[in-house]
Each structure stands twice: as C-alpha cells, then as structure tokens.
C-alpha cells in the first residue's frame, strides 16, 4: 500500500489554498489560485491598461506578487484582494508608461514629437517656467525626478489630490505653451 496521497487542489477553497501555501510553501496551492483567476487578472489588466499587448507580462508579474504577498499578508477575501492588486499594478504600469512617453516627448526621441524638434531644451525650460509654481514643481518632480505622489507630498507639503491635479493641468498647459512656441518658429 502506498502512503502517497495525490491532493486535488481544485477541491480546496481559496482561503484553504492560501493557508496551505503560507504554512507549507506548497507552490501547487498558489498555482491553483492563479489558474482559477488568471483570466480575471488578464481581463482587469485589459480594462485598466493603456497597452493591451503587455497584459500577459503583467499577469506573470502579478503572480509573482501574489507568491510574495501571500506569505506575509492575511488575506480575508482573495478574489477582492487580487482585484485590487491587479488594478494597482495596472495603474503603476500606466504611470510608468506615461513618464516614459512624456520624457521621450520632451527629449524629442519619438517620431510623434517631430513637430517639437525645432524647440530647444532652453525653450522647454522656459515653457516650464511659465507654468504656475505648483504645476511646475509637481511636473518636474514627477516626470524628471521620478518621484511618486507621496514623495512629492513629503517634499512640497502639497496634498496628493493637489499634486495629481497640478501634474495634469501642468502637462496640458505645457503642451499649449509648446504648441505656441512651435507655431512661432514656423
């Protein structure tokens, strides 16, 4: 008689699988959770992500996040927790992509910015200086120093809502100013 028991992980609840993984490190338990919800993770990613072609990579990143967090975190409702983790990862990814896109636009490294090729770095700095103080500070700290809203809040004393608003308005106003500069050069 064999003493092996082949566990059917599909029969366990989410919370049982989490406990099993947390207590014994059985990766098959966490893999079962991933298999249950991978399609939902992908769906949320497609919903929130601006770049659908990288959603598969995000799903893998979230799986790695789940493996680490499940060891340390008490998770009451796995499905809800997973949704929040996925949404936050997509927001973080979008923020990173916006920073890259904005920096590339200012540095004239992409074909979409050919219209701004005639604008010198000095003109861009001059345009930044035309922004309201809060907008200028927040745009510079967010896009050039790569600080998070929280870090900007600590550095400036501004509330995070004001920071977000200042960045959005500053970005829009900077674009308007740069378009005027571009028109003057034509």
3D architecture notes:
The chain is mostly helical. Helices cover 73% and strands 0% of the residues. The chain folds into 2 domains: 11-94, Rna Polymerase Sigma Factor, Chain: A; 108-185, Arc Repressor Mutant, subunit A (Orthogonal Bundle), CATH 1.10.10.10. The chain contains 8 helices and no strands. Helix 3 crosses helix 4.
Q: pLDDT average, as an integer?
A: 78
> Proportion of β residues?
under 5%
Oligomer: single chain
The number of distinct structural domains comes to 2
What is the distance, rounded to the nearest whole angstrom, between the alpha carbons of the first and last residues?
Answer: 87 Å
How would the blueprint of this fold be written?
Layout: H1 14-24, H2 27-48, H3 55-72, H4 78-107, H5 121-129, H6 133-144, H7 149-156, H8 160-185
Helix pairs in contact: 1-2, 2-3, 2-4, 3-4, 5-8, 6-8
Key terms:
disordered N terminus; elongated; 73% helix; 0% strand; Arc Repressor Mutant, subunit A; Rna Polymerase Sigma Factor, Chain: A; 2 domains; mainly alpha; 186 residues
Task: Please summarize what this structure is.
The protein is an all-alpha fold and 186 residues long.
């Amino acid at each position: 008689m064999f003493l092996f028991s082949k566990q059917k992980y599909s029969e366990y609840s989410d919370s049982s699988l989490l406990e099993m993984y947390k207590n014994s490190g059985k990766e098959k338990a966490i893999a079962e959770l991933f298999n249950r919800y991978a399609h939902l993770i992908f769906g949320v990613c497609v919903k929130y992500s601006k770049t659908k072609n990288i959603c598969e990579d995000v799903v893998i990143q979230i799986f790695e996040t789940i493996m680490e967090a499940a060891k340390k975190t008490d998770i009451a409702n796995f499905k809800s927790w997973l949704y929040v983790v996925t949404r936050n990862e997509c927001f973080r990814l979008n923020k990173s992509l916006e920073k890259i896109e904005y920096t590339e636009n200012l540095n004239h490294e992409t074909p979409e910015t050919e219209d701004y090729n005639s604008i010198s770095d000095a003109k861009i700095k001059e345009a930044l200086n035309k922004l309201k103080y809060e907008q200028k500070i927040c745009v510079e700290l967010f896009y050039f120093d790569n600080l998070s809203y929280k870090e900007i809040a600590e550095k400036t004393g501004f509330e995070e809502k004001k920071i977000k608003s200042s960045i959005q308005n500053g970005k829009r106003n900077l674009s308007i100013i740069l378009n005027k500069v571009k028109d003057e050069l034509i």
